[in-house]
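Handout, section 3.2

Students often ask what a structure token actually looks like in practice. Rather than define it abstractly, here is a full record for L-threonine 3-dehydrogenase. The first block is the sequence as you would receive it.
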Amino acid sequence: MKALVKERAEPGLWLVDVPEPEVGPGEVKIRVLRTGICGTDLHIRKYDDWARNTLQLPLIVGHEFCGHVVEVAPGVEDIAVGDLVSGEGHIVCGKCRNCMAGRRHLCRNTVGLGVNRDGAFAEYVTLPASNVWVHRLAIDPDIAAIFDPFGNAVHTALSFPLVGEDVLITGAGPIGLMAAAVATHVGARNVMITDVSDERLDLARKLGVSLALNVATSSIDEGMRRLGLREGFDVGLEMSGNPTAVRQMIASMTHGGKIAMLGLPAEQFAIDWATVVTSMITIKGIYGREMYETWYNMSVLLEKGLDLSPVITDRFSYRDFDAAFDTAASGRTGKVILDWSGGARPERASTEPTEAEAAATMNRSA
């Protein structure tokens, strides 16, 4: 099968032929249809310090995907050949204290798909059945492919009550954009999102935010005045990992404000802890998704009309992966999708199935 592999300890990825994975005990084999390019994948392609210190090569990369089930191991229940599925990319041990208590997202022994084991940028991938999410309702495969980052957005956005609240989101990358869509959808009063990319801020406006602010030309205080806010924001969703953005968020919170922080800083930096203490601000770190409450929330949000389609801006065949990665690395786009189905796709997503999807559906019905 074809797969995108980090073959050598240098910048780049290589599209090569590798053996198809075999289903192990309790696993499911999936024919990949779509994949999403993540910031982690960009780090791996660049082969930066994090990648050099983390990866064991060679490695098939990628962890955002959807596909059809083509094989299940004996004893696997509730998953059938032909099911359209996405995958939870954090594979947990099931035996540590947090796993045993049902807090699997806090497992300290987590193995990352496409980081610590071969991933989903390939024609086939295997996963433990417990990591497979079956889409029971109709869903566009492009949206199904980004359930992993969508889950990050939902986990972050729903960490604190949002109904009637004023919400500040720093960072309008794909996950920040999805978090903005969620906050607006569930009933926040005002949602202000900040970035320095006009292209990404335009995407945020399509998602219905109250204000998309370019902090290269306007201050957060100016944004607050435009929204008529006098006491600061109730909830902050930090998606950038940028030190300046974090400091500005802390300075802009109301007393008793709550911050959920998903953005991962590249290095340590100082913040105004006196303001955190005297303003009684709560800061909560977010990593990944709650298994599987977040996945349930995602499916219900889409079922109840949340539209993520504006977040997906670019689609490429997997054979054009270099152009796709360059586009994702530009910092001016939303989500970039790779098509592994072998069928041509229009620029905008269609509800019509590809040949591979139609074949899988027919096989399941037979």
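Discussion prompt for tutorial groups: Residues 220 and 248 are 8 Å apart (CA to CA). How would you have guessed this from the sequence alone?
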